[in-house]
Amino acid sequence: MKVIICGAGQVGWQIARHLSGEKNDVTVVDNNPDLVRRATETLDVQGIAGFASYPDILDRAGARDADMVIAATHSDEVNMVTCQVAHSVFNVPRKIARLRSQSYLTAIYSDLYRREHMPIDVVISPEREVAQAALRRLSAPAAFDIQDFLDRKAQLIGLSLDESCPVVNTPLRQLTDLFSTLRAIVVGVRREGRLFAPEPGDQLFPGDQVYIFTHADDVDRTLEIFGKTVKRQERVVIVGGGNVGLAVARALEGRAMRIRAKVIEKDRRVAEEAADALERTIVLNGDGLSRELLEEAGVERADAILAVTDDDKTNLLSAVRAKTAGCGMAICLVNDPTLVSLMAPLGIDAYINPRATTVSSILRHIRHGRVRGVYSVGDAEAEVIEAEVLSTSPIAGQMIRDIDFPEGVLVGAVMKGQEVIKPTGSTRIEVGDVIAIFAMSDDVPEVERLLQVSVDFF
Fold first, then answer.
1. pTM for the whole thing?
2. What tens digit of pLDDT does each residue of 299-333 get?
3. Residue 123, beta-bridge partner list
4. Which residues pair with 414 in a beta bridge?
5. Which of 182, 247, 281, 291 has its CA 20 to 30 A from that of 193?
6. Domain for residue 230, yes or no?
């Protein structure tokens, strides 16, 4: 597949890394020559320095025979014009654009993106993706990571294990005997900084971070078995009233089970706009680092603080101050991946990486076969791929034990019709099944080969 990636920042670079690693023909375009040079020197990609929206630049990048353009520059307008030029001048079949401004995303204006107007096939909103990630974190406070799969009937949850976990030092194969009705399977373990797919004989140890696939109805039981208390969130403090904070507060207001939220926003204009948009949520104008303001928001009685300003240090420090005051849980928005190692020492329970959420969203739309979802685990260390099994797939009709999966690959869940089952070695994968597969990044190309279908399905 020939792909042009416009924008060589963090998101563009990660997408280029994924696609070039899977032997696609990738060209990166950016008006910053240094970013283009970094991409060409570290990845197996070609690079063009220039403005992606210029027809001559897209022509030089190979748009005449490109299969896809991914517009992920820092400018919404450049991304939109790039897709328009790719369609009108070069007839590129598929166009994906990252758009930040909420004005471009309002549902009543969705007709804008029809082919006869602004021909964008997929619109990715980082703020909306981050807000959804934050809401998932709040729904399972004991988890540091959580993602829905299989029509929300299964979830991948990430848990940090401590000495009180009842199943440490127990071989994984014994968990099936001990909890025979539990529809959950451990698919990934991070130990001493290294992520791997475990074998049935592997044990879990205190300090491990584990990724578990579980049926949505068994989430609470899974949390208890792994030593986590299940507590409903009733009070939440949100630091940052911009697009992300406002989206989370709106979603909390719309929930049937009442959650009391308070928003702290430093910019007076943004705070006033948030106050106008929200009905039951109190908005406080001031600095989220202020001890007095955090006390006014009742952070010592809050079940969680969600720090989602556009400044990493403000998010980290306000979360630490809230935890020190007695807040039950701290979730941070962190753009700089080098700060992630500080989370555990600072007592921060979970973090959201906008880059990872955006990369996952884009990858979901560019995979081979009938891929319905892709989730990037950690710092692109692994992926969870949700895909429909077609008649042309090599795995159709085989039992899982007979499929030649690489060592770093595990099937986490299988949906047959509307029923999600826990996979075993004797589970037969049938045409029409939807499967969720955990794969280390190096093994993704082989998983895609096993899911591969004819070119008609691209």
1. 0.71
2. 999 999 999 998 999 999 999 999 999 998 899 99
3. 97
4. 421, 435
5. 182
6. no
444's CB contacts (< 8 A; 6+ apart) are 18, 21, 22, 383, 385
Residue owning tokens 């099944």: 433
CB 360 within 8 A of CB 394: no
- Say if residue 95 is exposed, middle or buried (CB neighbours under 10 Å; 0-12, 13-18, 19+): buried
Q: What phi and psi values does residue 238 have, to the nearest 5 degrees?
A: -110, 120
Nearest partner of 306 among 360, 251, 368, 268, judged by Cα:
251
Give the chain's domain count: 4
Among 74, 104, 124, the domain-final residue is: 124
Residues 36 and 115 in one domain: yes
Number of residues assigned to the chain: 458
In a domain? residue 435: yes
Q: pLDDT tens, 181-192?
A: 999 999 999 998
Q: Tokens 């904070």 identify what position? A: 245
The CATH number of residue 175's host domain is 3.30.70.1450
> Domain containing 50: what range?
2-124
Q: What's the angle, vertex CA 364, arms to CA 131 and CA 79, rounded to 5? A: 75
Q: Which residue has the tokens 């202020």?
A: 290
By three-state DSSP, how is residue 446 classified? helix
* Torsional sign, CA 442, 446, 451, 453: positive
End of a domain among 124, 157, 192? 124
Please report, for residues 387, 413, 419, 424, 454, the alpha-carbon distance to residue 397 in angstroms, rounded to integers and kept in the order given: 15, 16, 18, 15, 18
Which pair of tokens denotes residue 313?
A: 């240090």
